[in-house]
Structure formats: C-alpha cells, structure tokens
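I need you to check the entry underneath: sequence plus fold tokens. Let me know what the token row says about the fold.

>
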Amino acid sequence: MEYILWVTVIVTSAIAEGVTAALVSIWFIAGGLAALVAQMAGASITVQVAIFLVVSLLVIVFLRPLAVKVLYKNADKALNSIVGKQAIVKESIDNINCTGEVFIEGKMWSARSNDGSSIKEGTIVTVESVEGVKAIVSTKQDA
C-alpha cells in the first residue's frame, strides 16, 4: 500500500506545479518516482523516504538552476526590448504617490520618471530602463 503514498506525492506535485508553474513542486515528482521504484523493489519505508528526500534535493540543487536559465532566458530580452522606445503617458506619473502608466507598443506599463519629476498625461516620453515591471521614463526625446 506504500505505492499509494508515492503516487499521491507524484500526482499532487504535478497538480501543484501545473497550477503555480513556478518550478516549486516539480522536483518532488522525480523524488516520488525514485521512491516508487524503491518501493516496487521491496525497500523499507525508511529507505523510500530517504531516497525521496535525496533525489528531490539533488534534482533541486542541480537541475533547477539549469531549468530557470532555459525557461527564463528570453524574459530579460522581452523586458529590455522597450528600452529606448517612445511611449505616451496615459496616467500622470508621480513617483511620490506611486502613480503613472504609459502605453508602449500596444501595452500598458506602470511607469516612474527617472528623475522623480511629475509627468502629465499625454506627454511623449522615452523609456530609459525597466525595473521589475515598471518602465522608467524621461521626457528626453530621440533626435
């Protein structure tokens, strides 16, 4: 009946990963599979749990950095693709009150001014950088 434990761990981890897609629980699928194989080979529950823990930890330590690198390699490129582009202020930018939105290439972005100045709605701005999910803009125009 121990196989039910490992099948439950595998299925629960797969569902959790499918819901979050955050590379958090996927590693326990490998551990659960290894423990299930150990159970089928007749290993004691103590050995199964040890195998689950060791395999899960090894997969997290060695494969997670590679998976993150592969899955998120284009994220920085996409974010930085708007740097240098012109945008129009759709909601006045006020860094003190944490307000402001700009329209860039068909999408709305939260925005802050690079020098702390307020920028009125309707102003054309240039994206200087991206910090997190915010476009940092200035009123400087490209020549």
